[in-house]
Design a protein that fits this description.
By secondary structure, this protein is of the alpha+beta class. The protein is built from 2 helices and 10 strands, in the order αββββββββββα. The protein is 33% helix and 26% strand.
């Protein structure tokens, strides 16, 4: 009786090619998923960084502007002391500078929108208020280098609410009409470029006032009415 001997057969070349092709496709899908996940995480981290950066910048601006002091920043042509210079692209005022940010005490401070290499830039300049009698003496503010707070700005503007001649709050103004007095509120609205990764939340700041005088109490009462009106508007929109 004859026995049939089966010989072991190996993989053919076509089978090997098919296996390696499938393996390459599986590896490509795996690495594609890993790369997609990495890019998603990186994108999320950049957005979180942008949000935190804007929160810090808004916190600094709010802290300094809200505590603006009624001290003279400059002198007008008529010899009047300008306490708060509010323009569409810049604000200049006096406010206390915390010791951990530099030399403590009242500093002249300027926040300005200027043209940069890529869109507009928000700059911040400060210097200790000068008591020099010599007009040719260079003050610390005049000699200070501006600090870049925020880049990638497409457009933006400041706006102001102040008291009119009848003691009533005005609408939002692009430029302060009465710069020898303090504004009630300051607004900074920015339109960001795509490279910023996050839009700028509208910043509105109420100026803190000393409530000891009658005029200050009237201004505080006006601020409360403005705040209530804004809150009622927001509730109505909801």
């Amino acid at each position: 009786m004859k026995q049939t001997v089966k010989q072991a057969q190996g993989f053919t070349l076509i089978e090997v090619i098919v296996v390696f092709t499938l393996l390459a496709m599986i590896m490509a899908m795996i690495f594609s998923g890993i790369d997609s996940g990495r890019r998603t995480v990186e994108k999320g981290e950049k957005r979180i960084t942008a949000i935190n950066e804007m929160r810090v910048i808004q916190g600094i601006i709010r802290h300094q502007v809200s505590r603006a002091m009624g001290l003279g920043v400059a002198e007008s042509d008529e010899g009047e002391l300008l306490k708060f210079i509010g323009e569409e692209n810049a604000i200049t005022f006096v406010s206390q500078m915390p010791g951990y940010l530099g030399t403590g005490g009242p500093h002249i401070q300027k926040i300005e929108l200027v043209n940069g290499d890529n869109g507009k830039v928000l700059e911040y300049t400060h210097g200790l208020i000068s008591n020099y009698d010599d007009e040719d003496e260079i003050s610390a503010f005049d000699d200070a280098e501006p600090i870049v707070l925020l880049e990638n700005i497409k457009d933006g503007a400041f706006a102001f609410v102040e008291l009119d001649e009848e003691g009533l709050p005005t609408d939002w103004l692009n430029e302060m009409e009465n710069q020898i007095a303090m504004p009630l509120m300051v607004q900074l609205d920015l339109e960001m470029m795509a490279a910023a990764k996050e839009q700028w939340p509208l910043l509105q700041i109420a100026i803190q006032l000393d409530g000891s005088s009658a005029s200050s109490r009237r201004r505080i009462s006006t601020l409360n009415r403005l705040t209530n009106r804004a809150n009622n508007r927001e509730e109505g929109e909801k």
